[in-house]
Amino acid sequence: MKFTFGIITTGTSDETINIVIDSIEKQNIPEYQILVVGNSHVSRDNTFIIPFDEEIRSGWITRKKNLITINSRYENIVYTHDYVVFEDDWYQGFLQFGEDFKICMN
Length: 106
Description:
Largest sheet: 4 strands, parallel
Shape: globular
Number of strands: 4
Order of helices and strands: EHEEHEH
């Protein structure tokens, strides 16, 4: 199962974003990408920054979600915020659940 993780940020420190990315990497997902939408300078494998000018409209979450969708490489998209840390067995739970879903929330 392939995933795109879209991390929505509004200026959180790169240290905090790295903690979120660490929790994604610990999942040992064979194929994934991470998109960080916002002003971040994180430089990690499989991680891409999509700059966002907060002057246009601060915290414009709907636009940031659209940017994630447009830039997603994979069909399974996880929209998350920069304060969400994934449990160590998050991906294993999805493998048990299966891929037969249109929308899934957890």
